[in-house]
Amino acid sequence: MKISMYDAAVTTGIRMMTNLASVLEKAAQDAAARKIDPEVFVGARLAPDMFPLSRQVQIASDSVKLGAARLAGVTAPSWEDDEKTLPELVERARKTARYLETLRPEQFDGAEARAVRWKSRSAEREMQGLPYLLHQMLPNVHFHCTTTYDILRHNGVELGKMDYLGRDPPA
Amino acid sequence: MKISMYDAAVTTGIRMMTNLASVLEKAAQDAAARKIDPEVFVGARLAPDMFPLSRQVQIASDSVKLGAARLAGVTAPSWEDDEKTLPELVERARKTARYLETLRPEQFDGAEARAVRWKSRSAEREMQGLPYLLHQMLPNVHFHCTTTYDILRHNGVELGKMDYLGRDPPA
Question: pLDDT for B134-144, tens place per residue?
């Protein structure tokens, strides 16, 4: 009946960042094929008061990186949010996956009961590890990865849900 | 280091369906305030070859209902996909949450190693319970709930990420 916090946070995070990188690579190929300036995709939004694609990718990356680090009780590396091209955003997703690969299962011992504290835009927040994982970290990761996908689909990029879920069988 | 399959599948599913119902209720209020025919939202899409909002909600509901039932080793109820209004879609989300409330933690004993079999549109599929939960069920639920949210945001409904994540502290 039991699964590990490591599986749920790190294995999922690596898979989502790998799939996100592939989705962004497909967008770059699509831009080249349709002779569209790829920066149009980088700055595209679904509504004027929503973040553009670049920021969606950066927040997805931060949700994975900071979420896993907080659960492991370590400090995540700080990265500038300075990506301006699709290849730079692909690399952001890939380096997030590489960071997660440095975390070890034993760092997540007891993480379900660990107090996770962080500062949101509006307040100091604190949650226990398990609800933080299930109701904060994972929903945030999927929210921003799906919105990235939705922005690209809305702009005519040929993608399917299998690009989001990952075509290779999960490990 | 351990969390339960029940927590990850059922607690998450109930929370996502509850938040989805609230998002759809806000859409109905917005339609009334802006004097928009609410069926415009029900049929809205982000791309001509993507599903409309109604189908996104139905698939989100099925992902939760069927995912949890498969992991519990029981047969989920079958529902017609005949919702045509926002109140009907709200009720679809709420009855999905009510179904999950009938499942019991002990039904998920050993679910992480259980063989989950289902028929997708194109093939017979089989996955072990844990990767099914982490890489199939939960990503699917979030994918369709986020796309529902994105469709509404794209159509000018005033929503924020806290509507998606849930404003009440998680249990």
Answer: 999 999 999 99
Which A residues 15-54 touch B at CB under 8 Å? 15-16, 46-47, 50
DSSP E strands in B5-154: the ranges are: 115-119, 124-128
In whole angstroms, how large is the CA radius of gyration of chain A? 16
How far, in Å, CA of A92 to CA of A81, rounded? 9
**Total H helices, total E strands in chain A:** 8, 3
Taking only Cα atoms into account, the Rg of chain B, rounded to an integer number of angstroms, comes to 16
What's the CA gap between B48 and B53, in Å, rounded?
A: 12
**Band of the pLDDT at A168, cuts 50, 70, 90?**
confident
Distance CA(B44)–CA(B52), nearest Å, equals 5
Q: What is the ipTM of this complex?
A: 0.95
Contact between residue B56 and residue B151 where contact means Cβ atoms under 8 Å apart? yes
Cβ distance B46 to A11 less than 8 Å, yes or no, reads: no
Which candidate from A11, A47, A169 shows the least CB-CB separation from B154?
Answer: A47
Residue among A16, A136, A153 whose CB faces B47 most closely: A153
Distance (Å, rounded) from C-alpha B44 to C-alpha B23?
15
User: What are the tokens at B6?
Assistant: 């029940």
Structure tokens at B43: 């049929």
Residue B166 dihedral angles phi and psi, to the nearest 5° = 100, 125
DSSP A169: P
